Structures are given as C-alpha cells and as structure tokens.
Amino acid sequence: MEAIEVEGLQKQFDPPKGPVAVNDVSFEIHEGEVFSLLGPNGAGKTTTISILSCLLKPDRGEARVGGFSVTRQPEKVKGLIGVVPQDIALYEDMSGRENLLFWGRMYGMRGASLDKRVDEVLELIGLLDRQKDRVGKYSGGMKRRVNIGAALLHNPRFLYLDEPTVGIDPQSRRSILDKVKDLNAAGVTVLYTTHYMEEAQELSDRIGIMDQGNMIAVGTQGELVRLVGERTRIDVALDRDADILAGQWRRLSGVTSVSEPDDGHMSLLTDDANTLMPTLFENARTAGARITEISLAEPNLEMVFLHLTGRALRD
Ligand SMILES: Nc1ncnc2c1ncn2[C@@H]1O[C@H](COP(=O)(O)OP(=O)(O)OP(=O)(O)O)[C@@H](O)[C@H]1O
Ligand SMILES: [Mg+2]
After folding, report:
1. Best exposed site among 29, 49, 170, 312 by fewest CB in 10 Å?
2. What's the gap in Å between 201 CA and the centre of ligand 2?
3. What domains does the chain contain, in order, with CATH numbers?
C-alpha cells in the first residue's frame, strides 16, 4: 500500500460549463517522501489538495491517505494530515500563541498537553520571542510560519503545503524550505505544491507536473528530464527582448522548443548545440540584438514543461 493513492480524480466546478479543474488525475506518494505538484496558475494543484484534505468531493475517482478513503472515511484522513492552505487564515487580532491554541482546540487538544505542544511548535517555527504579539503586526513570512505551525500541532503523519513561499521574503522562504526538509527527515511525508521549478527541484523526491487539470508527467527529476531525451538546453541572454528571434529560432532545424522571451532571456532545446550556436549569433545580429551571455546545460524541469506543453512554466 502506498502512503497516498490517487486514482482517476475528476472535479469540474459549476458544471456543465465550468472549468474541469482536475481531469482524471492519478498518482502515488510513497511513505517518507517529499512529493511536489508543479504547475502554473490554474493547473489544478489547490483543487487536488482540497480533495486530498476532504474539503472538496471529487465528481469521480478515489483517493486514499494512509489507507483511508477521502470520501468515505474523512474523519480518519483528517486525523493524519496537517494542511497549510494557500491563503493564510489567521485571526489578526489574536497573538501567534492564541492562534495556535485556537487551532489546537479545533483538533480536540486541551489543557497542559496543548500548552506544551504550542511551546514546541513555537520553537519549531522560530516564533517563541514574538508569540505574544498580535498576528496583525507580523510580516508575511511570520504569518506563514504560524500557518505551518498550526498544521503541525497534532503531529501529522502527512503534511500538505500549498505554495507556502509565495509572496514572502527570501529569508523566510529559505527557512520554510529548510523546515520542510527537517520535518521530512523526521519522518513526515510531504505533499508540496509550487509553480517554482527551483523549489520542486530542491525539495522533491518525486514530482508530478500538472497543467490545465491534467497530470502530464510524474517521476523523479532524473526521470522527468529524460522525457526531453538527449537534448541540450541553450540559455541565451540578449541586450533586448527580441520577439522576432523566438519565432526564427523555433523554425530552425535541430531546435525542438524555444521558451517565450523573458527580460531578454530565452532557452532553447536542441539536438545539436554546436552547429546551432553560430546561427544564433548570426540571427541576433541581423535582428539588431546582441547576445550578452550564452551557456549550455542539461534540460531542467522548465524544459520538460516546455517540451510537453509548448509553453513556459512561468506563464
Ligand atoms: N471555487 C471555484 N469555483 C470555480 N472555479 C474554480 C474554483 N476553484 C478553482 N477553480 C478553477 O479551477 C481551475 C484550477 O484551479 P486551482 O486553484 O486548483 O489551480 P492551482 O494549480 O492551485 O493554481 P494557482 O497556482 O493559481 O493556485 C482554475 O481554472 C480555477 O479557475
Ligand atoms: Mg493554488
């Protein structure tokens, strides 16, 4: 039995015309791993997490968490999971400590054992010294840490984090990523969602790439990158955004994909980097642009997404 098993999940909002947020999605999460759902806005990540949290019923399909059905045994599932939602939900007028006490009572915790666990969690999220301040005075990163703390109070076996680093400063981001790694090392199985390729790469044992409700690929980073085949990635920086070049380069033989220009940066996938490079310089010169940097690298997850969808992950 896998720790989490998802089979043919389907969810359409406002049928029959509404978006199919999750379309026949299946995947497994092994006990003890960090599994990331990577995908752009609207991919269906939050909808998937909501179904696995028993907050939303699927139209079709089934998911089991720790062997329990999310549709038929939601109370069992809820006891096993800690959920850090995408939108921070805290009482701004209460202190960090009071917020955690509130969530602990929601989990049925009481008295001295709750107090002790809140102390531990405050220590874990690094907010012991600010525990008595109103949450309204916290930074975004501190609020996010309280959110994470709330999900950890009942020592869950599974932790879901839905884009926990969006909109916070780099230092808080770093501390959250490190905390996720620590928790995972301590035995917590993690389901993480993000649209940042770098985070998925850094954290995950396995990654599911989602797009427009579909699970388009699942595997380790190595397995996913191999989907791109024996290709090289060429990263080019230009002194200006030259949209015309993206079009020209897409038509070159030996080029399989070209990302949308982003602030003068473009990436290409090719079977034959050596032959191609002089052409790139030549085309740039003709377009009145200058290549200021060029480098060769292995394909990354961004390239896997581009290869599978023809679009950039950032969009
Ligand atoms: N409550 C809702 N009612 C109607 N449509 C919804 C609702 N929630 C999500 N959707 C739609 O379902 C699709 C998937 O949304 P979802 O929030 O699961 O994506 P996501 O991958 O989490 O995106 P993001 O990275 O922006 O958080 C989108 O088209 C979205 O507009
Ligand atoms: Mg979301």
Report:
1. 170
2. 19
3. 4-225 (3.40.50.300), 230-298 (3.30.70.100)
Indicate yes or no: pTM above 0.70.
yes
- Mind listing the pLDDT tens digit for each residue in 207-255? 999 999 999 999 999 999 999 998 999 999 999 877 899 999 999 999 9
- CB of 164 shorter than 6 A to ligand 1: no
Total Cβ atoms within 10 A of residue 292? 12
Give residue 42 CA to ligand 2 midpoint distance, Å: 7
> pLDDT per residue over 66-79, tens digit each?
999 999 999 999 99
Task: Kindly list the distances between the CA atom of residue 307 and the CA atoms of 56, 61, 247, 303, in Å, as whole numbers in the listed order.
Answer: 32, 28, 16, 6
Please determine, for residue 1, whether its predicted confidence score (pLDDT) is greater than 90: no
39 lines ligand 1 (CB under 6 A): yes
